[in-house]
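Why show two proteins at once? Because comparison is the fastest way to build intuition. When a single record is shown, students tend to memorize it. When two are placed side by side, the eye starts asking what differs. So, the first record is below.
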Amino acid sequence: RPFMTFVVTASLSFSALAWFGAAYVLYLRDALHLQPNTVMFLSAIGSFGILLTIRFWGRFMDHSGSGRAMAKALIGHAIGATLFLLLYPEAPWSAYALIPMIILISIFGAAFYIAAHRAMLNYVREENRVGYTNLWTIGTSLTLGATPILVGLLIDHFGLWGFRTCFT
């Protein structure tokens, strides 16, 4: 029962991250009209931020636990996604604010991903590891697969307000 509660909670949290992740690249391209190479550059900078901080997150998880790391990472990601609401297409400063925002959101998203998987491994009992990992894979895959479809439908139907809904 505690494992199932964890799977549901983690799956919903992954879905929350995916609402932003599936929408922000489209927002950069369609609303802010950035070129594909600029979008790729921003993604690469976000990945570099992950590279520089992942060791810190690992130590933090070892010291404070996966649950605390997951909570902090979700809060950081939520703040970053909410700040994306301030990046409207007409604002000249939007392009400059993207770099630190994408770096921070990438770092918090990766930290949550790693902390959740670490927590899952701590839940898995040796005698039932196949069943536990199957439940984990199915639960997280369903939410990670369904969320981008919902994001696409929302953006396609509501345009800029669809993006804002995803960032909220």
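Second record. Ask yourself what differs from the first in the token line.
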Amino acid sequence: MSVEVVSYRLTYRGKPAGTQVIKTEVVGKVRRMEARAAFQGPLGNATVLQRSRSSAQEHHSLGFREETQERDGRRVFDVSFDARSGLVKATTGPKDVATAPYIRPYRDPLSLLGEVRELAGAGAYGVAMLGKDVTVQAAGEVDLRTALGERRAWAYLLHPGGSVVYVDTAPPHTILKLVQRLPEGSLESLLVSVASEPSLEGFGDDDAGGKRGQQRRRGRRRPRRRKRG
């Protein structure tokens, strides 16, 4: 399957604030997502790269990583969900590691967006996330003007936080607009274009890829030794 590439322009309190690109690819039973935001103007200059691996069917997170690059340096936040050990491990540096019991099907910020795209206007429900759980509440349908023309969208409210996600009612249910509430105003992501590319780079071996690799290794035949006369 090809990679879906959706581009957005960012505005903060009505002023240009940068760009964002969200890429999505399904490999076997794993959904891989990458979101790259380049902020400028009223929000300062920074680049935020997020990568997520999650279940394509059940949406729980398998791993999440966020890298923030600013003038004063680079910050990394990495979370792994290990079902075998029953632990969630969060890392911000070699000496800064925290663990918690892996007892719930946690989502990460990107896998949550992937799940919202598949709700088809469904009502309120709760989502387990690290830190605070989130309630996703359907708020009806609205008409939106986008770069691709007039679109009908489902609106979903996220609590706490008050963010709003607008999802195209037509397949493949692209996110048309995202509004995030910040302390002094709203950050809006507005759809610019939808494209595709052949592959999503930058991810390590995922579950599907690892299994394929094991299958290939198991499938290799050893050369036969010649019998000596």
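One difference worth noting in the second protein: The CA atoms of residues 61 and 72 lie 30 Å apart.
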